[in-house]
Amino acid sequence: xxxxxxxxxxxxxxxCVTVVLLLSIQYSFGPITTTDDIVNSIAIRQQNKGxxxxxxLSSTSFLPSSAASYSVLEDVFxxxxxxxxxxxxxxxxxxxxxxQGFYVYVYPLVGARTPSESYLQIxxxxxxxxxxxxxxxxxxxxxxxVDTLDRDNLSSDYVHNLQKELTSLSHxxxxxxxxxxxxxxxxxxxxxxxxxxxxxxxxLAKASVSxxxxxxGFDISLPLFHKTLPIRGGxxxxxxxxNMPSNxxxxxxxxxxxxxxxxxxxxxxxxxxxxxxxxxxxxxxCRHGKDWERYADSRCEQDxxxxxxxxxxxxxxxxxxxLVPRGRRLGSFRFLEVLQYGCIPVLLSDxxxxxxxxxxDWRKAAVWGxxxxxxxxxxxxxxxxxxxxxxxxxxxxxxxxxxxxxxxKIVITTLQILKERVEKHNSLxxxxxxxxxxxYSLRPSYSKDLTLFPFFKTTNSPQMFTALLYVTQRSPSLRxxxxxxxxxxxxxxxxxxxxxxxxxxxxxxxxxxxIEKLPIRVRSISHMADSYALYEEFPTDAVMTINQxxxxxxxxxxxxxxxxxxxxxxxxxxxxxxxxxxSSVQKYRYTSKxxxxxxxxxxxxxVMHKYYLSxxxxxxxxxxxxxxxxxxxxxxxxxxxxVGLPPVKVGQRLSFKSTPEQLAVHxxxxxxxxxxxxxxxxxxxxxxxxxxxxxxxxxxxxKRYPLMEKLL
Length: 712
Hints:
Blueprint: H1 7-29, H2 35-48, H3 73-76, H4 89-92, E1 104-106, H5 117-128, E2 141-143, E3 150-151, H6 162-167, E4 178-182, E5 184-185, E6 203-207, E7 220-222, E8 250-257, H7 265-269, E9 280-285, H8 292-295, H9 300-307, H10 312-317, E10 319-325, H11 334-340, E11 344-348, E12 367-368, H12 377-382, H13 386-404, H14 407-422, H15 430-433, E13 465-471, H16 478-486, E14 491-499, H17 505-513, E15 520-525, H18 529-532, E16 542-547, H19 554-564, E17 572-573, E18 576-582, E19 587-591, E20 600-601, E21 606-609, H20 610-621, H21 631-643, E22 648-650, H22 660-677, E23 688-689
Parallel strand pairs: 1-2, 2-4, 3-5, 4-6, 6-7, 8-9, 8-10, 10-11, 11-12, 13-14, 13-16, 14-15, 17-22, 22-23
Antiparallel strand pairs: 16-21, 18-19, 18-20
Helix pairs in contact: 5-14, 20-21, 21-22
């Protein structure tokens, strides 16, 4: 028989704990005998705090909520101050500020001190973003006008009285819901990550942050970027093609500083061991700093000689892998430089929290190297498969183009991450962030199902389309026009929109009443943009927009739709136009002159995915309100920006010339939309798609679309 001598002691301990808990509850709520007593007691205490008790009596009041962070534990156990190092969204962020939506407020500039150029640019692109509000009471996120980018106390941009500046902000509230941007912290010799000031419960968007200091789900890791990085738009990717196997001259390259002493010197001082001068070219120089000669070692002269033999950009463009070693800080400017050139980054910076790691899967675009295993790196790279290399190159270009090619994209990505934390019901999956076309081109409110977006459609799936016919005047040929349209092979429904002519509604209804082949809906609208907001009603993904004219041949409708089925993410249509750069006025101009290239397809008899109409509706309702006549130009900007490809022009039966008035309108729209976007996403194309045997001297019975040649 076994005796358990410790069991009575265990029972005693559990009994003591139970008594303590009961006493705590007794102290907090008074005599309580039922669950209802507990609920009523909490309700009374909460009412004393100024909140209505009714919200606590709902079945969901005790569940974690983004709108109400109140917890029963706050009343049962005593409250202790939250340490800033332990901040998370659920304990240092006030979700109630975001009940009106995700809006960002930027404090106005005060005082004589002017922020640095880079910080002013961050403020300006934030104000141009769709998240900006000038009403602090409406804001969910606050951004200080105090420059916090450079916290190196040797820098001329260092703000010495930062603590006083921050606490004087009208809505500071110990930093809750505030976002602090920072690129540099610490100084020689240790380059500590200490911020140099108490930011309370503020979120930190910081470059060169280490994994052990990064507060996951609260802070945001930024890339280091040059002051020359474009503010809006962005530099193009410089990867011209992806070959398998890669035919680049160098396997691995690097050209940069060599630190002789201090932090960051260990890795760079060892690079010469794996440099072979053939397919691995790793170049360092001692020539930097005020007194580099004082610390120069025996290898400096030879290093400097090799360093001068190679051009930096030539190495980037001709290397498959590019080394990104840590500098004095964990991050490096080299990171964005190699991404732009399609050179796969090989990271040699232990414990670096990579930029936007919350949403970007860097395993698909970068290679990690261990600083202590440098000698094994060449063999690891040589063993990588061709398909893996090609995949890494392609992904690096996607990330560069969508999230890093301009300051605006870096700032908007930061804000988008915060928005998804606040509005989790509208957040995108990691797959959406890491696949073409990227997070910005996918609006979660449209659908949570990625297959409903145009970018993920399969071209061999059966398709039908909805026709949107815009009528502006009475015409005796309208009935015949509608009949020909209704005879199209893949048409599902026709919507006839009577634009700004309510007196024509009866005439149009009568003209379409006898056509029973398919559903026809007649609507009276004030502006064409009103029809875009009805995209949810349209029963098909494909939408064809058609302006009223004298004649229409069914075959041209069938052909343009058959082409769209092969290019479902693009705009496909008949009327092609382009743009020119006019140096005399320093702006882009719209042109309708016939040319061997085009970048715009007008909406008349064009096919698109209805998702683009939803995007068009959002722009016309917010950023370009009242600019109904700019739909053609704006739609081309939206689609080209999303897919990075030009529209598709197909051969047409009739040619149309723009009137002087139309030219003037489109030209002014070109300027307006360009200013709204901040850059020109339009792509040039030299391709026109015609039916097989189009205009060939063969029998008509051998042609599928013979009527398209009539009156051409």
